[in-house]
Amino acid sequence: MTRTVDELRNEIRLAVGRYERIESTAFTKESLAAICEAVGYEIETNPLPPKPEMRAGILSAIGELDADSDDADRPFRKAELEAIEAVLREDAQ
């Protein structure tokens, strides 16, 4: 059975030490920062960079996006969430 976008987001949140969310929401800056750290994308933490910059860095770090692309101006798509979750699951083993 395929997982929903909400289920994938929650699995990613839990994998990086964040809290599961009941309502359907995109990642917070803090969650994106935790994902950046987990995939090895270094960011400044005071203040946190804009969400699109962190999304682009995450996708670039896992090989899903060229660093110069503007595709990260929107929330992650399901296929991108699946790729992130797979990398985090792989790293946990």
Characterization of this structure:
By secondary structure, the chain is mostly helical. The protein has four helices and no strands. About 50% of the residues lie in helices and about 0% in strands. It is globular, with a radius of gyration of 12 Å. It starts with a helix and ends with a helix. The relative contact order is 0.17. It has one domain.
Domain module count: 1
Distance between the termini: 23 Å
Q: What is the count of DSSP helices, taking H or I runs of 4+ residues?
A: 4
> Nearest-angstrom radius of gyration?
12 Å
Uncertain segments of ≥5 residues (pLDDT<50)? none
Taken from the alpha-carbon principal axes, the silhouette is globular
Q: How many DSSP E strands?
A: 0
> How are helices and strands ordered from N to C?
HHHH
Biggest pleated sheet: none
Helix content: 40-55%
Structural class: mainly alpha
As a percent range, the share of strand residues is under 5%
**Chain-averaged pLDDT:** 89
